[in-house]
Amino acid sequence: MRPTTLVFPIDEHNRILLGCKKRGFGQGKYNGFGGKIEPGETFRQCAVRELYEESGLVANPQDLECVALFDFQFPFDETLTHISYTYVVRTFTGDVKETDEMESRWIPIDEIPYEHMWSGDREWIPQLLKGDKLVGIIAFDRDNSGVDLMKLNIVDEVMESELVARIDAYIEENTEDL
Ligand SMILES: Nc1nc2c([nH]c(=O)n2[C@H]2C[C@H](O)[C@@H](COP(=O)(O)OP(=O)(O)OP(=O)(O)O)O2)c(=O)[nH]1
């Protein structure tokens, strides 16, 4: 799978915007906003595009804070494996709207519905909210849902390689499986 992005907006009341996914992979789960990178996009461009498409919020790429790089591994279905650049954004305009993909709401951070989210999120979202930056692997079980292994390191800064994103997307678009 192509690299993906994931964005968590946080407002001035310290509420987080989460969307319940209405269709596709992760349906029924609350999550941030994101998706696959398109050819020629940087990770930040992908992140703001997906944020707008899925939530209605408008953000500038430079206002995103890169807070994590996850290697989401699905050993029982390799086609699902992807890396995900994860951002927090506190500056944005526009109105939250329901979209084809997501029904979104602002949630106080002590009321995050972890029971309706990806199961590993209850470990790392609190870390991100207290300001840690994380890089590492989350490997999923046979159901492609539960977590078999989580190995996350706290880092000073998440290295964002815009170039790698472009090359990955280019290769994906221009080569065939051998
Ligand atoms: N919060 C969270 N998200 C996860 C986990 N595992 C995992 O694959 N995801 C998310 C991150 C991405 O938003 C999404 C990747 O799947 P996807 O690219 O098919 O998402 P999408 O349907 O929104 O993509 P798109 O068609 O809009 O491009 O899955 C996890 O453990 N926690």
TrEMBL record:
Cofactor: Mg(2+)
PROSITE patterns: NUDIX, NUDIX_BOX
Catalytic activity annotation: N(6)-methyl-dATP + H2O = N(6)-methyl-dAMP + diphosphate + H(+); N(6)-methyl-ATP + H2O = N(6)-methyl-AMP + diphosphate + H(+); 8-oxo-dGTP + H2O = 8-oxo-dGMP + diphosphate + H(+); 2-oxo-ATP + H2O = 2-oxo-AMP + diphosphate + H(+)
Gene3D superfamilies linked to this entry: Nucleoside Triphosphate Pyrophosphohydrolase
Source taxon at top rank: Bacteria
CDD domains per the UniProt record, alphabetical: NUDIX_MTH1_Nudt1 (cd03427)
EC number: 3.6.1.56
Keywords per UniProt: Hydrolase, Magnesium, Metal-binding
Domain annotation Nudix hydrolase: ranges: 1-130
Pfam families: NUDIX
Oligomeric and partner information: Monomer.
Family, per entry: Belongs to the Nudix hydrolase family.
Function description: Oxidized purine nucleoside triphosphate hydrolase which is a prominent sanitizer of the oxidized nucleotide pool. Catalyzes the hydrolysis of 2-oxo-dATP (2-hydroxy-dATP) into 2-oxo-dAMP. Also has a significant hydrolase activity toward 2-oxo-ATP, 8-oxo-dGTP and 8-oxo-dATP. Through the hydrolysis of oxidized purine nucleoside triphosphates, prevents their incorporation into DNA and the subsequent transversions A:T to C:G and G:C to T:A. Also catalyzes the hydrolysis of methylated purine nucleoside triphosphate preventing their integration into DNA.
Family matches, as PANTHER family: 7,8-DIHYDRO-8-OXOGUANINE TRIPHOSPHATASE (PTHR43758), OXIDIZED PURINE NUCLEOSIDE TRIPHOSPHATE HYDROLASE (PTHR43758:SF2)
Official protein name in the record: Oxidized purine nucleoside triphosphate hydrolase
